[in-house]
Amino acid sequence: MTLDIRPFETPLGAEVRGVDLSQDLDDAAFAVIERAWNEHSVLLFRDQSIDEARQLAFSRRFGDLEIHVLDQYLHPEHPEILIVSNVMDGDRHVGIYDAGRYWHTDLSYMAVPSRGSLLYAIEIPHDAAGEPLGDTLFASTSAAYDALDAATRHRISGLKAEFSLANRHARLVADGDPGAVLSDTHRDRAPPVVHPVVRTHPITGRRSIYVNEGQTAGILGLPEDEARDLLHELCAHCTRPEFVYRHRWRAGDLLIWDNIPTQHLAICDYALPQRRYLHRTTLRGTPPQ
Predict the structure, then answer these.
(1) What is the predicted pLDDT for the residue at 176?
(2) Are 263 and 141 in contact (CB under 8 A)?
(3) In percent, how much of the chain has pLDDT > 90?
(4) Structural domain includes residue 106
(5) Least-confidence region, from 61-70, 127-136, 171-180, 221-230
(6) Structural domain tally of the chain?
(7) Which residue in 106, 168, 206, 253 is the catalytic one?
(8) Is 146 among the residues known to form the active site?
(9) Is 289 within the bounds of a domain?
(10) Active-site residue among 101, 104, 168, 276?
(11) pLDDT, tens digit, 9 for 90 and up, residues 174-194
């Protein structure tokens, strides 16, 4: 394999060419990929043909895997794989069907959020003209932090925010999805947690803004109106177009992203019979600092 790392013309993201993930990678090749991941935050591998075992093996090269709290959407034979899909089995969704309707960072509502995610596209919906649907947008929250003025950096330094899975599901219900009511079991598994608003990457040392519209319930230690306005301001700042890479999916894409300096948004512009089916593995992280 001849590795070729091609950065995108955005603050994050690069395509890795010359890699066949159905074959074993030697340590030297993987070290190049891991360095590129830490540098670019999002890596794309096009035209892959891998089964569940290969995805799991490649994912474990980056670290330990975790099992998602929403266990009703886990792969029946491989619980480390979360199914992301709008496909139905009778009246049951086989996977997470909204696919991340709000800007979010995976599992930021857990005491120890995930380090990264690897998403492999098996089926991608298309419009009548054959154009792919269901794009995913990724925002660099480290580039967003770097772009803050000194006064705002000082203002948010030391602040903490509450994150909540229940907050996400309450938003879904309020937006007209009655099926998104969170069960008591899942609510108990993911009680509200508190994380710093400014997070430091444990490997690169870069700082990033660690709040998002989908899972951050509020900023603590400020008057309610001020906290609400600041959260809205930070979320809007993080997702400004100049910080965003938009990924147009193709079947066979494998995308890995770093959840510490990024957040992402799935564009839900498709509906059955347009099918979307992907497999996601999730890397265990460390407590935010």
Answers:
(1) 58
(2) yes
(3) 82
(4) yes
(5) 171-180
(6) 1
(7) 106
(8) no
(9) no
(10) 104
(11) 565 666 555 666 666 668 899
Active-site choice (40, 101, 264, 279) = 264
Q: Report whether 247 contacts 45 (CB < 8 A).
A: no
Q: Is residue 132 part of a domain?
A: yes
Catalytic residue list contains 104? yes
pLDDT in tens, 195-226: 999 999 999 999 999 999 988 999 999 999 99
Asked if residue 266 belongs to a domain, the reply is yes
Radius of gyration of the chain (CA): 18
Cis amide prior to 273 (ω within 30 degrees): yes
**Side-chain-side CA neighbours of residue 207 (13 Å):** 12
CATH assignment at residue 214:
3.60.130.10
Active site (annotated) includes residue 40 = no
Its domain, for residue 251, covers: 4-283
* pLDDT reading at 165 higher than 60: yes
